[in-house]
Amino acid sequence: MSMHQEDSADFVIVGTGAGGATAARVLCDAGFSVVMIEEGPRVPSETRPAGLLDAMSESMRDIATVATRSRTPMPLLLGRCVGGSTAVNSGIIWRLPDDVRADWRLRFGLDELVDDVELERIFARIETDLEVAEVSDEIRGGNADLMKIASEALGLPGRAMRRNAKRCVGNARCLQGCPEGARQSMDVSYVPYAVQHGARLHPLCRAERVIIERGCAQGVRGTLLDPSSRQPQGTFHVHAARAVIIAASAIHTPVLLWKSGLRRNVGEGYQAHPGVAVLGRFDRQVGMGFGASQAYEVPLREHGVKLESIALPPELLAARLPGAGAEWQRDLRKLDYFAQFCAVVRMRARGRVRPGHFGMVDVRYEPLADDLRRVNESVALLVRMMFAAGAVEVYPGVAGLPERMTRVEQADSILQRSVRRRDFHLMASHHFATAAAGIDPETSVVSPTLETHDAAQLYVMDASVLPTNLGVNPQHSIMALAFRAAERLANAKRPSLRAA
């Protein structure tokens, strides 16, 4: 029997990640009624699966198989659960860089949105709410310790990461979702806060169309999903008395807008931070299974690159090892002796996002030649860092290079070759700019208030609105911009806004 659910509120928010949960928190504090719609399930911390595949199946979109459509597909990591990608990331916190703020003011007219005084107030508030702190030496872990040794040996500007996980005990399970609830992702912070202050949460509800009448957003329609099979079992309709807020990610927000009839500039200008990783084998135990999943970083902003330590669950680490048969099995016996460093690249390439066939998403994105040059240089630097940290073998994981390097001099050969896209295994977890903010409706999708140019009472509050990529982890910036926009929206709808 097909089910149907009806609900209504002042504000309907699609998505419970960094943007949607933050908007809900602000609007509930202002005294408005809020309904939160989430396509994925609610996954309590205490019931999160320890196995990687089970965890990814439950919390990530299509078990992390979403990829760009190209001859060399690039996987795109996307959370699909209450809390969105914040529930399965490492909780790395960076404030919006000053050069990005200046660029957005100059090129996109976003002076009010990125007002320095307001943003600093909001950043400080969020950091208090989410218990942001620098990773301590005690829970840094062996993988990050080695990156620290390498950065100091090579004179690189390394530093401990700042994360929203002051109570982290070093389970190294961020990708599966913190079993302790120590990382203050949205599913354990702003979503329950909003619910405690009157919001209603509807998980397993796939939004499929914003209802727009006479140029104004009126609500959201979609499909109810069965908790076990995730197959359709009915429909829902949520009426919005004051506004609809879309926060479904830079990949799926443009798809929802497109299906709702908004096409101008939607899905254009997609940007990302693709990453590449290098493995090193050491003659002593590294202990990748203990520590923060990511704890140490080397920002090289002038080069458009940020280097990071990243611990892998055993299932993924085993898949990264070269070789086959007996050779591969010998390496498996040494899993605890491996470390992994990665490079996240601020690419200049721009792509496009559209609805695909059979409910899929069509993402077109190809790195530019200069982007690939920086990837190649990053691999060479990571190889040098591994040897500087004491690795006995380094596995660059790049086609055309030796599977195993045993001398630091071999890193020079990386820079002496021609670079091809198909040589690199790239993966992107940061996505931007598919519903970009700006004052000009001819080149943007939303105004500086984050209301869409082409439909009143329809707002976007996620990474889609960021008109460029940042070069740093975007969660904190997404939350701050959503906080700022939601406060301004609440003030516009009710002048007697209480202090948040």
Notes on the protein architecture:
This protein starts with a strand and ends in a 7-residue tail after the last helix. The chain is globular. It is built from twelve helices and 18 strands. Strands 4, 10, 11, 12, 13, 14, 15, 16 and 17 form a nine-stranded antiparallel sheet that branches. Strands 1, 2, 6, 7, 8, 9 and 18 form a seven-stranded mixed sheet that branches. The relative contact order is 0.19. A hairpin with a 6-residue loop joins strand 8 and strand 9 (232-246). It has helices spanning 18-29, 52-59, 98-108, 116-129, 142-154, 190-196, 249-259, 314-320, 325-332, 369-388, 411-415, 475-493; strands at residues 3-14, 34-37, 133-134, 159-160, 162-163, 200-202, 205-213, 216-225, 232-246, 268-281, 296-300, 305-309, 338-345, 351-355, 361-364, 393-395, 427-432, 458-460. Residues 496-500 have low confidence and may be disordered. Helices cover 27% and strands 22% of the residues. It has 500 residues and is an alpha+beta fold.
